[in-house]
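Dear H.,

Thanks for agreeing to be a second pair of eyes. The structure we're designing against is below in token form, covering all 625 positions.
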């Protein structure tokens, strides 16, 4: 008890010296104990007089980031410290601070402890720091170039046809209620990354491998369990990912001891998946030794080459005196991370984009007008990445994707830490604050995306809120210029090295340019997302393919049957659609972040895919907005 109190006192003193506002918490909000017993200890904390907990309570609740986003920062300051006996934690949704933090990797490295779960299958580019990270980044970034973004674009077009076929149903007519949008968008992006990234073909139900496919690849594509496996590769991967949190959190012995069927099933899926990956690794090593060239990103090939290729064998694959060689677990760990990071994030954005467009028919119609203007009736399989990416990036298609990423960024918080050894200055509006060494920094992406200082807004048309900052309004991206004074653009001591990956800006020069540090769905700086360009290629292609010939409507079955809708006047239809819009918006607000931000449990928004011209609602609803 004595040491807890004296640690708290010392930490209060350090927070005070920083010059930033600070608030006290009896437990470090990110400690496992605090997270597991969140409701319980907050109840105990609230036994103290109100003045001790009232202000900071919102940010001590688990999972507040998406739910409350910018609001707590209005009350507590745009950068504030939570002091506990364990440590200091800086929360920020100030673009100036964020820009400084993401620009100086050595002063503010990634807090890799936050990602330790994701290194279970092997250390990888997402979960490491320092020299080890540099090596992982150098090796993995090789596959992320414009040529491969174009490949991802082509594969996205192809796979989106697969998704559309699913949604049209067996008779190909569409207008059927789809309750599996989340699973289907996951399948879409998984199929894309598995083929473009790893050369492994995955199928939609009803599709099959062409005759004469290489037997080794056929093993991964097969929908049945191949020899020595108890499930197909696709199932092993899908179920491992589906149960990923349980698998990462539960030791193997416990899973097998648990009486639940699901625990054993998840364990079996992981066993199969890891066995497949070992076999895949072996196949790749053979390819590399035989000098077989794989088309496309060939992520596994690039990883394997570092340790098994000629350069590795004669020892010449070195960087800055350090040998660039990955161990087998590191190869498998990186492949795993590319599959997880490469599909779940993009799938969530695709999922929410479709839902938001269905809930906001006016935005959907504007998007379709831009798709018509830019692509007309041309066959999507002839669309060229290089030719189309810039016009689309300046159109309503990009504005819609940007707006989804603003409101629903898959990664809600980026965890950093102040390097031990030295306190670090941050400059805000001409003042300097010293952030104590060892302080954890929560770059609160989901909050800065809604900090009104940086965004063009108008009064809300959907709620009685003063501004539309919390509403889905893609049109805001057509305001040009930049809002919010974010101080001098150059950060003193910023990284200058090229760490690989796409270095262009997040948004087109023809659209609104948020100040640096205010919009970072892909993070920023040295540790920004490696897959940013291919995610953008995927999203622009998939959205354009769907909305060129189809519209998406919210399903209204809960309120009216198809026959009833057919007999309704426009006013009656608008009324029933309004109920579906309200419910869709309320459901989207229930999203929460476990690894990434998405809907959980039974929360889903049913939709219908209809041919353009056959809409029942979205061709006229909200026409005056
Ligand atoms: C819309 C889709 C995506 C979003 C919003 C997104 C977002 C992010 C964010 C915020 C980070 C930084 C995480 C942190 O520092 O804590 C990150 C890192 C990363 N992302 Fe993405 N990502 C997306 C798609 C992809 C794709 C398609 C791939 C690969 C195929 C990918 C691979 C990675 C990797 C390897 C890193 C780690 C980079 C490093 O630390 O050096 N991401 N992503």
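And this is the sequence the design step returned. I haven't edited it by hand at all.
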């Amino acid at each position: 008890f004595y040491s807890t109190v004296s640690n708290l006192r010392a930490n209060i003193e350090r927070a005070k010296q920083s010059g930033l506002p600070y608030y006290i918490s009896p437990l470090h909000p990110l400690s496992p104990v605090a997270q597991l017993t969140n409701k319980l200890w907050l109840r105990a904390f609230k036994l103290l007089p109100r003045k001790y907990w009232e202000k900071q309570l919102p940010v001590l609740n688990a999972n507040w980031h998406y739910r409350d986003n910018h609001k707590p920062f209005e009350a507590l300051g745009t950068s504030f410290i939570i002091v506990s006996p364990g440590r200091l934690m800086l929360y920020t949704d100030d673009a100036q601070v964020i820009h400084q933090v993401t620009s100086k990797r050595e002063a503010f490295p990634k807090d890799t402890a936050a990602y330790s779960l994701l290194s279970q299958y092997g250390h990888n580019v997402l979960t490491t720091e320092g020299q080890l990270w540099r090596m992982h980044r150098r090796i993995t970034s090789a596959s992320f170039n414009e040529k491969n973004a174009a490949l991802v674009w082509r594969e996205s077009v192809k796979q989106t046809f697969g998704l559309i076929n699913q949604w049209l149903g067996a008779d190909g007519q569409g207008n059927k209620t789809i309750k599996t949008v989340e699973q289907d968008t996951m399948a879409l992006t998984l199929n894309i990354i598995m083929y473009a990234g790893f050369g492994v073909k995955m199928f939609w139900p009803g599709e099959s491998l062409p005759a004469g496919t290489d037997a080794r690849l056929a093993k991964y594509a097969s929908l049945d369990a191949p020899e020595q496996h108890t499930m197909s590769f696709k199932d092993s991967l899908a179920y491992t990912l589906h149960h990923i949190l349980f698998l990462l959190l539960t030791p193997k012995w416990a899973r097998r001891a648990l009486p639940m069927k699901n625990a054993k099933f998840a364990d079996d899926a992981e066993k199969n998946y890891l066995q497949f990956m070992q076999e895949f690794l072996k196949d790749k090593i053979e390819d590399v030794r035989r000098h077989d060239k794989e088309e496309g990103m060939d992520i596994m090939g690039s990883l394997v080459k570092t340790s098994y290729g000629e350069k590795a064998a004669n020892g010449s694959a070195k960087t800055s005196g350090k040998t660039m060689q990955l161990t087998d677990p590191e190869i498998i760990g990186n492949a795993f991370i590319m599959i997880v990071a490469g599909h779940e994030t993009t799938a969530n954005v695709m999922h929410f984009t479709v839902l938001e467009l269905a809930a906001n028919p006016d935005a959907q119609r504007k998007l379709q007008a831009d798709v018509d203007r830019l692509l007309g009736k041309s066959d999507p399989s002839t669309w060229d990445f290089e030719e189309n990416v810039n016009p689309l990036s300046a159109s309503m298609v990009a504005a819609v994707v940007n707006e989804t990423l603003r409101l629903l960024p898959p990664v809600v918080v980026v965890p950093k830490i102040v390097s031990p050894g030295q306190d670090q200055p941050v400059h805000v509006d001409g003042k300097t604050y010293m952030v104590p060494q060892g302080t954890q920094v929560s770059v609160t992406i989901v909050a800065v995306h809604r900090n009104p200082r940086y965004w063009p807004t108008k009064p809300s048309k959907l709620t009685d809120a003063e501004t539309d900052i919390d509403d889905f309004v893609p049109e805001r991206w057509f305001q040009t210029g930049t809002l919010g004074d974010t101080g001098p653009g150059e950060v003193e001591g910023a990284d200058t090295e090229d760490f690989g990956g796409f270095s262009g800006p997040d948004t087109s020069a023809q659209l609104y340019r948020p100040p640096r540090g205010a919009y970072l769905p892909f993070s920023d700086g040295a540790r920004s997302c490696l897959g940013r360009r291919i995610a953008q290629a995927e999203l622009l292609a998939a959205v354009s393919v769907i909305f060129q010939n189809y519209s998406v409507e919210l399903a209204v079955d809960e309120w009216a049957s198809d026959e009833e809708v057919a007999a309704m006047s426009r006013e009656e239809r608008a009324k029933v659609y309004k109920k579906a819009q309200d419910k869709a918006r309320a459901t989207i607000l229930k999203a929460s972040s476990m690894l990434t931000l998405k809907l959980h449990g039974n929360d889903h928004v049913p939709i219908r895919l209809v041919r353009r011209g056959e809409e029942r609602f979205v061709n006229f609803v909200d026409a005056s907005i």
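Two observations from my side: Residues 110, 125-126, 137, 193, 337-338, 341-342, 345-346, 349, 410-411, 414-415, 521-523, 527, 529-531, 534-535 surround protoporphyrin IX containing FE (CB under 6 Å). The chain has 25 helices and 14 strands.

Warmly,
E.
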